[in-house]
Every structure is written in C-alpha cells, then in structure tokens.
Design a protein that fits this description.
Layout (H helix, E strand, L loop, with lengths): L1 H41 L4 H4 L3 E6 L8 E7 L13 E8 L9 E6 L15 E5 L4 E5 L4 E4 L1 E5 L4 E7 L13 E8 L2 E9 L7 H20 L11 H14 L4 H16 L3 H22 L5 H14 L2 H4 L2 H14 L3 H17 L3 H14 L4
Antiparallel strand pairs: 1-2, 2-3, 3-9, 4-5, 4-10, 5-6, 6-7, 8-9, 10-11
Helix pairs in contact: 1-5, 1-7, 3-10, 4-5, 5-6, 5-7, 6-7, 7-9, 9-10, 10-11
C-alpha cells in the first residue's frame, strides 16, 4: 500500500516538474521569437504562389474506409507571375497515409449551380481524372481538354492539381458562383462537396473562439497539477542532481529525461547563442530517454518532457514542433486520462500549426473539441 502511494506521488511529481519546466522554457523562448514574429508579420506571400486563397475545405475526421482525409478547393488565380500557368485553378487532395495507392480518382465538377445530391455520377461540366502520376481534364462529353499541373508532396500524401484556364471551355469557372464536386475513388462514391468560388477566411470571431478553447483546455490541465514546483531546487541544483543520477545509472531514463529538460530550461535562462547549444545538447538526453522508455511504465512522463520542450523552443531555429506533436499524439494513445488527452490534443494542434501541418492541426483540434464541453 505504501509503495502504491509513493508511486502515485512520484508520478504527480513528474507531471508537475514537466509542466513547470515547460512554462519556464516558454517565457524565454517566446520572448526570443518576438523579432521573428514581427518580421514575419510584414512578409506577404502572394496567394498565386501557394495555389490561391481557399474557397472551401472538407476535413474527414471519421474513421471510415476512405483514404481521403482532406479536399480543398481554391479560388481561381489570374495574372500569376513566375508560374507555369498565369491563370489556373487549384484543387488539393490529402490522404491519411504516405504514398497512398488510391488507384484512380474521378472528380465530376458541376459549374452550373445545379445541386444534384444523388450518389449516381451527375451530369457535369468537367471530369478530372487523377491517378498516381498525372491528372487529365475532360468535358461533359468525355472529350479531352488538357493535362494539369500535377504536384505530389509529402511522400505522396498530398496531391495538388492545377488546372490551366487557357481553354475557353474551362474559363466558365471564373464566372461560377459555386461548384459542386462529386468524388469517386475506383468507381465508388466518396464525397459530394459544394464549394463557393469566393475565398473564405476564418473570421476574427472564429479565430478568437479557437484560441479561447485551447486556453480553456490548458487551464483544465493546469488545475490537475500541484501549484508548487516538485522539488524546490534551482535549475543548477536540478541539473547537478539528475546528472549525478544518470551518471550512476546510464539506463535511468527518468533522470536522463529530466537532465535534458533542465538543460533546455538553462537555455531559457541564457543568451540566445548559448541557448542553441544547450537545447541541442538537451535533445541528446531527451531522445535517449524516450528510446529507453518506449513501451515501459513511465513512458508518458518521458514523452511529456520532450514534447513540452519541443512545443516551447523556436520553430524557426530548432524545427521540433512536428516531433513534439507526434509525442503529444503518442501520449494520447497511452493514457486513459481524458484531461491529459485533451491537453495533448490542443498542444499537438499548436505544434502542427507551427510546423505547417494544417490538416493534422485541424484534426487534433476537432478531437479535443469532441472530448471537452466548452460554453
């Protein structure tokens, strides 16, 4: 019984330390990112380089058999500079797995604003045929119109199709108020999707609501943590303590993890140049600890340490946000604690956002929203 109580207290101490360290690292590194954020605010990438503004987005968060996780319709681009086509229309498809073998995808596109909700192939203005190597566009009679620009990214997980708007037949897209997309994979219906042809951006209200929800979940998690630091030691004292323990037992993944964490904390208390060196050194210990703890009791605490550091350090310098998100998602799969799960989902959401993995960010936020009642 006494051993069980000690074990519970020990686990709470680990979570407290990780949470406290995370906050300590953040304060310094968030301040360090201010100049970068300030500069980025004034850098504007023209939408014509990235495919055009987004008109409509379908996110498939269900666990159905379809491998398609996201379908995005962009606003047609005109007068694009330094692009293969000066006028084009981009459609993007994102899949659950890398190098998906999806066979053949047919997308029937209706630009006449006639909403057909049946599952049968509709009368359509265009048919876009996509396989693993190319995309071709046909008219309503099945006549070939043109080849598309075909871009396979992220190991084949993301496919971007740019339809040139040279042909007069396809230029009717420019005047359409909306389009209806009927997606078939290997002759089976996957999705019927209606898209306005005007770009849609999240409103300030929606962005504010997402941020408020994320902060709410973080506060819920913080309430589960004791208010005082676990050991009351300074950073230097904690480093010495865990260094001695890890030197005595190189297989002690707990001590290795906390030594790495406090190295990152020390980085947060140092000059920027020194911080880079200390954080890089920290990951040597954090990575080793994660490897040693894999599949063992205590893995959650070890991953929480590394994930928290990865979420805190500047993405522009260390590029650790994506691996931090993976650690948070791994914790989700290992714990039954719903508050911890929700916290890890919102932390993964922020990490995916930092690393430019927008689809995964949206999915993580949706999972958190399913778990936590808010307002």
């Amino acid at each position: 019984m006494n051993m069980t109580i000690k074990k519970i207290r020990y686990n709470r101490k680990l979570f407290t330390t990780a949470f406290t360290c995370f906050l300590g690292i953040s304060i310094f590194f968030i301040c360090s990112e201010i100049p970068q954020t300030f500069i980025a605010h004034f850098l504007h990438v023209d939408p014509s380089f990235t495919g055009g503004l987004i008109c409509a987005d379908f996110i498939n968060s269900s666990n159905d058999a379809s491998s398609l996780v996201r379908y995005t319709v962009h606003e047609p681009v005109t007068n694009a500079r330094w692009q293969q086509s000066a006028e084009y229309w981009q459609l993007s498809l994102e899949f659950k797995n890398d190098t998906p073998d999806f066979g053949k995808i047919n997308i029937f596109i209706d630009a006449d604003n006639i909403n057909n909700t049946s599952n049968e192939p509709p009368s359509r203005d265009f048919m876009l045929q996509i396989d693993n190597t190319e995309g071709k566009l046909y008219d309503s009679m099945g006549n070939f119109i043109c080849d598309t620009e075909y871009y396979k990214l992220e190991d084949g997980k993301l496919i971007k199709i740019r339809i040139p708007l040279h042909d007069k037949k396809i230029q009717k897209i420019l005047g359409a108020k909306k389009t209806i997309h009927y997606i078939y994979q290997d002759s089976s219906p996957v999705l019927t999707f209606e898209a306005s042809m005007k770009a849609h951006k999240k409103s300030k209200k929606e962005i504010k609501e997402d941020k408020a929800f994320v902060n709410y979940v973080k506060q819920l998690y913080a309430k589960t943590q004791p208010s005082q630091p676990a050991n009351g030691k300074t950073t230097a004292e904690s480093l010495a303590f865990y260094k001695e323990k890890s030197d005595a037992n190189p297989e002690d993944f707990v001590s290795l993890s906390y030594y790495g964490t406090y190295l990152a904390v020390k980085g947060g208390e140092s000059s920027v140049m020194k911080a880079v060196s200390l954080v890089n050194e920290a990951y040597i210990y954090l990575d080793k600890a994660a490897k040693l703890s894999a599949g063992k009791e205590g893995e959650v605490e070890i991953l929480m340490n590394r994930a928290s550091v990865s979420a805190s350090v500047p993405e522009q310098v260390f590029g650790k946000a994506a691996s931090g998100a993976e650690d948070f998602m791994r914790i989700v799969s290992l714990t039954e604690n719903e508050t911890l799960k929700a916290y890890c989902y919102v932390m993964a959401y922020e990490c995916y956002q930092k690393s430019g993995k927008e689809t995964l960010a949206i999915l993580a936020l949706q999972e958190a929203q399913k778990m936590v009642q808010y307002q």
